[in-house]
Every structure is written in structure tokens, then in C-alpha cells.
Design brief:
mainly alpha; 2 strands; about 5% strand
């Protein structure tokens, strides 16, 4: 990983709270039958516990059953810029 990418990731970590993955979230994801993809379900479980406003993804169709609002990256950037 280049130093530029590392610096970018560090900047993102200073802006956003990073959710941890724990047994509670894994078990909730395993019990959630609304998602066909386990990793997507884990993302939703983390978003719920963190009280996230959005899940940002390029694949909103994978989150049709999400309990958290799903937006695409360009929508998020527009929202973020509007708050500056």
C-alpha cells in the first residue's frame, strides 16, 4: 500500500467512526435472513449499532431490505459538501 493511500485512510479514520466487529453483530447477521450476502448483512448490523445515517455503497440493490438508508457514493459526497 502506498503512503498516499495510507494517508488517505488515516484521514478517513479521523472523519468517520469505525465500527468494530464482535460476536453480537456476527450472530445478528447470521440470524438475519433478509440478506443473501453475509458481508452486506454485517455492514447493516454495524450501521445499526453505530446509529449510522447511511450505508454508502455502489450496490444499493444489495441492500433493498436494509433498515438503514442506503445511498450511492456520489450522493454522499453531495450531502457532505453541502454541510461544509
Amino acid at each position: 500500500m502506498t503512503q498516499i493511500r495510507r494517508a488517505l485512510l488515516k484521514d478517513l479514520c479521523s472523519i468517520f467512526r469505525i465500527s468494530d466487529l464482535n460476536e453480537k453483530k456476527i450472530m445478528a447477521a447470521l440470524d438475519n435472513v433478509k440478506f443473501s450476502d453475509f458481508e452486506d448483512c454485517l455492514q447493516e448490523e454495524c450501521a445499526i449499532e453505530e446509529l449510522a445515517d447511511y450505508i454508502v455503497t455502489r450496490n444499493p440493490g444489495d441492500f433493498i431490505e436494509s433498515r438503514v438508508k442506503v445511498i450511492q457514493p456520489d450522493e454522499f459526497v453531495s450531502l457532505f459538501q453541502a454541510q461544509l
